């Protein structure tokens, strides 16, 4: 399985593949087919403000989220693992050091919005 980029030491990134408490976050699980789960995830993310799909392939999605005021860009990558029916992800600020928990909050909001749609 493809690996996500590792989080830097700074506290402005969360990843399901991180092992330390500051960066680690639980992945999303899906029961439907990968294609259906991917379409559900895309529908939720695209409904969020200031998002742009940058790259997509069979098992991967890469979005840019832009903050309202200072126009900071965060990169969010999703990686679908069909074997374990898991969506791994990484959400990280492109610049700066801290993010006031924005990346973690965003991913938990997506988790909540997805509900049982996967």
Describe the model.
The chain is α+β, with helices and mostly antiparallel strands. Helices cover 22% and strands 31% of the residues. Strand 5 and strand 6 form a beta hairpin. The longest helix is centred in the middle third of the chain and has 13 residues, at 34-46. The radius of gyration is 13 Å and the shape is globular. The two termini are 20 Å apart. The mean pLDDT is 95.
Show the helix and strand layout.
Elements: E1 13-15, E2 28-29, H1 34-46, E3 51-57, E4 60-66, E5 73-81, E6 86-93, H2 102-114
Antiparallel strand pairs: 1-6, 2-6, 3-4, 4-5, 5-6
Largest sheet: 6 strands, antiparallel
Rounded to an integer in angstroms, the radius of gyration calculated over CA atoms is: 13 Å
- What form results from the Cα inertia axes? globular
Mean pLDDT: 95
Oligomer: single chain
- Give me the strand/helix succession: EEHEEEEH
CA(first)-CA(last) distance = 20 Å
Short description, anyone?
With 118 residues, the chain is α+β, with helices and mostly antiparallel strands.
Sum up the structure in keywords:
118 residues, 2 helices
């Amino acid at each position: 399985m493809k690996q996500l980029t590792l989080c830097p030491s700074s506290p402005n990134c969360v990843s399901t593949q991180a092992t330390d408490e500051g960066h680690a976050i639980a992945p999303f699980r899906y029961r439907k087919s990968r294609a259906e789960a991917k379409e559900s995830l895309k529908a939720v993310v695209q409904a969020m403000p200031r998002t742009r799909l940058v790259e997509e392939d069979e098992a991967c999605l890469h979005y840019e989220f832009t903050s309202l005021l200072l126009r900071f860009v965060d990169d969010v990558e999703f990686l679908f693992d069909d074997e374990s029916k898991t969506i791994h992800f990484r959400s990280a600020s492109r610049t700066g050091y801290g993010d006031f928990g924005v990346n973690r909050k965003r991913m938990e909001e997506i988790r909540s919005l997805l509900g049982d749609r996967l």
